[in-house]
Amino acid sequence: MNNFIKNQNWRYATKKFDASKKITADDLLYLKEAIRLSVSSYGLQPYQVLIIENPEVRQQIKEVAFNQAQITDASHLFVFASYTELSDAKVDAYITNIANTRNIEVEKVNGYGTFIKGIFNPKTEQEVLDWTAKQAYIALTNLINAAAERKIDVTPMEGFIAEKVNEILQLQDRNLNAVLLAPVGFRADDDATQFDAKVRKADQDLFIHI
């Protein structure tokens, strides 16, 4: 069994973190880079990730997330917040980044920017919100897999009141909407859930070969 599959069997949605254990600065950089390099449609990365260590802020978030202890007990709390709009200015900034990164004239990629605008300008606000949230979920997967490689635990969470988290973090001012919480740290020794057998569909129930 290769390491990736071993890591997937090792990881689980941690229910109880060891509050005394913190991830290292090197591990944090590694996790951030994994998120940064994540797959993203059109390459847009229409989200930002807030990494919260401040205990007071985390307590506030816990109170609007059904008092889930992982939020305050984990080493760090990652909040994935997706764009609430895809303005022409955001697309232009992305096109400029392409040109600068690849050391080419921006005129050579302006057509790509026009193509992207043509896709998103007709969309409703809700359609944009749905699409940008999906992109954030893809980035979360990179975080989960990279963390498992280093035996760091991650608990993906949708159980929170997004509007309240937005208020606490003032995300509206940045045209962002909280879509996912991900406490990151190390499982407690007495978290019995870690010993439960992983329950997944059998191959024949999941895959259809045509």
TrEMBL record:
SUPFAM superfamilies: FMN-dependent nitroreductase-like. CDD domains: NfsB-like. Residues 10-185 form the Nitroreductase domain. Its cofactor is FMN. Keywords: Flavoprotein, FMN, NADP, Oxidoreductase. It holds the Pfam family Nitroreductase. InterPro entries: NfsB-like (IPR033878), Nitroreductase (IPR029479), Nitroreductase-like (IPR000415). PANTHER family: NAD(P)H NITROREDUCTASE YDGI-RELATED, NITROREDUCTASE. Belongs to the nitroreductase family. This is NAD(P)H-dependent oxidoreductase. It comes from Flavobacterium agricola.
